[in-house]
Amino acid sequence: MPQIIDLCATSDIELEDVIRVDREGQSFAVYHAPGGKFYVTSGLCTHEAVHLAGGLVMGHIIECPKHNGRFDYRTGEAKGVPACVNLRIFPVTLAGGRVTIALS
Amino acid sequence: MPGIVIIGAGKAGASAALALRQGGYTGAVTLLGAEPHAPYDRPPLSKAALLEAEPPSPAWVLTPEQAAAQNISLRRGAEVTSIAAPARRVHLADGTTLAYSKLLLATGATPRQLPGAEGVLYLRNYEDALALRTRLAPQSHVAIIGGGFIGLELAAAARQRGAAVTLVESAPRVLMRGVPAAVAAVIAARHAQAGVNLLPGVVIARIARAGAQHHLHLADGRIITADLVIAGIGAAPETRLAAAAGLALDNGIAVDEGLRTSDPHIYAAGDCCAFPHPLFGGRRIRLEAWRNAQDQGEAVAQTMLGGTQPFQAVPWFWSDQYDLCLQVTGLAEPDAPTIARHLPDGTVLHFQCDAQGRLIAAAAAGGMRLGKEIRLAGMLIAQRAHPSPAALAAPDVPLKSLLIPMATADASSS
Hints:
The complex is a heterodimer of chains A (about 100) and B (about 425).
Chain A: E1 3-9, E2 17-23, E3 26-32, E4 38-42, E5 56-58, E6 61-63, E7 70-72, E8 78-80, E9 89-90, E10 92-95, E11 98-103
Antiparallel strand pairs in A: 1-11, 2-3, 3-4, 4-9, 5-6, 6-7, 7-8, 10-11
Chain B: E1 4-7, H1 11-22, E2 29-32, E3 40-41, H2 48-51, E4 59-60, H3 64-69, E5 72-75, E6 80-84, E7 89-92, E8 97-99, E9 102-105, E10 109-111, H4 126-135, E11 141-145, H5 149-160, E12 164-169, H6 181-193, E13 197-200, E14 204-210, E15 213-218, E16 223-226, E17 228-231, E18 235-237, H7 240-244, E19 253-254, E20 266-268, E21 273-277, E22 283-285, H8 290-304, E23 316-321, E24 324-330, E25 339-342, E26 348-353, E27 359-366, H9 370-382, H10 389-393
Parallel strand pairs in B: 1-2, 1-9, 2-5, 9-20, 11-12, 11-17, 12-13, 19-21
Antiparallel strand pairs in B: 3-4, 6-7, 7-8, 10-18, 14-15, 15-16, 21-22, 23-24, 24-27, 25-26, 26-27
Helix pairs in contact in B: 1-8
């Protein structure tokens, strides 16, 4: 049975931005995409373990603040060197203005 | 029909080889590397490679398996001795020749050497880093010559390994080339805090060996005794093959804005080439940086495939020292005034504008979050923006709000 984790309010994140949320011993990056959808990935860059919440969101790309590795945060796919390992992604449910994910 | 030959299997060469395939090129691609290794990233050599407990493997850019999967003929330990440009052939040290339809020079740069100094170590390749690792012992005294990126990163690594460090720089301050004084001061203070003996404005008269030790005789009469001397005094573009082939040189292999050399079938990219930058009035510059090598490799592949876009990526450099992140975007004037923006974590971002008020550079040393601000500053520079000094200085005005809105929301194809 997957565990439902409440991460934040939808109003906590500006449009085209990202925040860091730590829950259950894990760190997440929560994104508010242009157009209004929300996405969640694991928080650390797969290159040198820097938190992506300090990075820049451009459209559907998150860019790591340290060495500019890029990912599509909708799919987790690494899109630009030095990042070459994909991010883990978590399916998002919105309910009552809250962003939640299911952790299995 | 002969294919494309790339001389130099570093970041620029490997990036170009991959981009040729991604661009749809189906002819032969031969990537010639003088080193015995597949292409690897050099930035970790002055950082993680010196600090990790066990000698790490190189950080591969293109493994032999990946090269094979892309049908890239990767030849390691392949030294080119000359280019016969009129015949479109390269000659290799093993006596073979290779014909090309197009040739890319991605020959990199070589550390400048101290004349007449014996036993001084330098850092460029993986073997250099392995040699340094074994010598950076706790309790040893390391003298580092040069207060640029390499010298300072080595100083940080040596301190973290427990060595005593003296760093000598002939210029009045560290990071004179391309980093504003206020940002260099943050870096210098962090090194002083870590116990590095920083000696800027000091000229070395000579270096003498005394058994296992070295004596650095300074021009002011002081003598520094060290177990190990490392020099990081800049790098010279590797232009030997280009010069012998009669290509135009100008502080590197001279290329146009499409990275074409003076020979219509030969191109150059990365540390070895000097190119006119459209964002800086066509001023010819040469960059020794990981991002530039990556970007120019991709750009030159597009030109070789018939593209006509000029190369105009905004210069971007980073360095990691201790817990500090240093980033510079654009072309900073070392002593020009800066506009300061104070970030919430205490980091200060410094901007420089030209006489017309156009943003030309931004730099900062501090916490990781500066990366996002530096990236936005780079986007403003690319847009040739003229932000007001008041807006740049105001932390409550997001840099993102100063950008000219883009036509599409998705920047993933940029």
